[in-house]
Amino acid sequence: MLQACLNGSRTAEEHPALPLTPERLAEDAADVAALGVTSVHFHPRDVIGAATLAGPEIATTIATVRAAVPGIEISVSTNVPGNRLAVIASWAPLAAGRPDVASVHVDDPGWRELAQALHQVNVGVELVVESVCDLGPVPPGVTRITVTATPQTAEELLRQVEPLGLPILLHGRENDAWPVFTYAVRLEHHVRMGLGDTLRRPDGVLARNNAELIATARRNQRSKAPS
Fold this sequence. Notes:
Largest sheet: 8 strands, parallel
Shape: globular
Number of strands: 8
Number of helices: 7
Strand content: 15-25%
CATH superfamily: Aldolase class I
Radius of gyration: 16 Å
Mean pLDDT: 96
Number of domains: 1
Helix content: 25-40%
Structural class: alpha/beta
């Protein structure tokens, strides 16, 4: 699987093509889906551009993206301040405005309760692991483990999560994004790329948009994948 991370926690000032509104997210989702992406991950925003999990904003964003790319997996971040458990509980009646998957960082206090809240509203859980920790029994509803790594930490983190027997998405950020992407391709793990992870192509040049990063990632996949 190649996932596109469309915006992350970035601000509009960081890149002119960063998609923040529902319409822009839908446009970018359609562009990357045409390049072979089967999952998109993003941080939904409110009208002033702040990250949000509120039902009306989530419903509008998800429904707009889903209309542009029906059938593609839509994943959102839960890394926002506030009473996330109560807000997620309000997602239950959203139907087409509910994401397929939401990410939960295991470094966050109360991550198990957050995973349970998502499971109760029929949203899959993408556990995010960035450091060595004791995961214990994996909560119900977890669909995969997303490992955020550097070239130096990837091997150790993979040793921790591989025994869980779940699909693994391995990715890096900023200067580590492309080296970790190449490493993940060679190991045949799921991968991701996009402006949420890095603003630059492998040659260091600022990417025009998400589509350029994904097109580059696809070429990298084809050239580095085991034969």
